[in-house]
Amino acid sequence: MIAGKVFLFLLCLNVVSFAVIASSPQTCPADDVSSKCGASDEWKGEFFPGIPKIKYEGPSSKNPLSYKWYNADEEILGKKMKDWMRFSVAFWHTFRGTGGDPFGAPTKFWPWEDGTNSLAMAKRRMRANFEFIEKLGVDLWCFHDRDIAPDGKTLEEANANLDEVVALAKELQGKKIHPLWGTSQLFHHPRYMHGGATSSEVAVYAYAAAQVKKAMEVTHYLGGENYVFWGGREGYQTLLNTDMGRELDHLARFLEAAAAYKKKIGFNGTLLIEPKPQEPTKHQYDWDAATTANFLRKYGLIGEFKLNIECNHATLSGHSCHHELETARLNGLLGNIDANTGDPQIGWDTDQFLTDIAEATMVMLSVVRNGGLAPGGFNFDAKLRRESTDVEDLFISHITGMDTLARGLRNVAKLIEDGSLENLVRKRYQSFDTEIGAQIEAGKADFEMLEKKAMEWGEPKVPSAKQELAEMIFQSAL
In the chain, fewer beta carbons within 10 Å around the N or the C end? Predict the structure, then answer.
């Protein structure tokens, strides 16, 4: 009797196991890139069924799948909103984000995924990407090479995989859509544990150069307007085993070679460096906008590169996003913005969608003062929260981010029309609108002249900075 029950239990267990295996999306090894392994790149029907093309419905709309503040063709401050914003979908967070973190397994299992990283799966993701872009109503996207196509056992195989996926992307994007920028992922693979351009191993340096060369070529082929360098591991963990001077020299030579190759292939896009202070390394060489600007000046690269400012990176470096944008702008280096934010209670790069209206207004102040961002724009280097797992959440997060920045632009228009804030700043510096002030600003006032004036004027009377009034004026526009 007991033996019979055991037999029945094992039989049931085998049936259940077979059913689980048969229904599992993991049909072949996760690192198998064969087109024969895993899903076909074809997908029956829509990837996002039931989700219409997102339209502008105005601030009173209660429809979560609509724009309340972003009206693409509405003209504000002499430009259409879409031309101020130039919104871009980031492929890696949108289609490769898993919800995993250092403390937990992935939580995102999109219906079109089969659990593999095959070429067929990469092509399927690319089809989903362009349906998403079309429904969101934008015409720009951005990517890392290894996020859109699987790596290979050799560089030749990796390049072939990339070529195959890029050919499909070229077909799908047509004439209307193109990349805001492309980049190369030089931080995930173990070969880059010491960095790419700053690795202590010359073979790694060469491999990184080859990978960037290929990524730049495909970005150019797809009509990309920019190319980004994010030095995720270009830094050090300790100076005890690091020749920092030599590594910085190597990084400069690497960027020089990239700028030369860009010209050789006729790529007219802007080269962008994305500052970040730390994480994953303890110290990264492009710590913030000022550090990066100094690096570019030292090595004579100031005319070859601009900066891609990420708001969450700004706060990690101890600055506000507005500070980093203004630093880049005043140095003539503001090229693009990674539109995201962090959480003040969490100490790492959380890459959340920007929802703070005040922060968005300050971001747009810099953009308007810069005259716009073109050929750069805003890319959403932002991911869904780990707990947000519905497909529609992909749309809601982007809609929220776009509406927040659009609201920021509308607020800037109010501030400019009112003129009170600009007036307050102008009055604060009005003592320099005098003859002696003009001489100082023209570099024609030496110390002897200034000493004479100081004795003539006596103890200076220092007026109020009116900080609270400035904040009141700013808040009134929100």
Answer: N
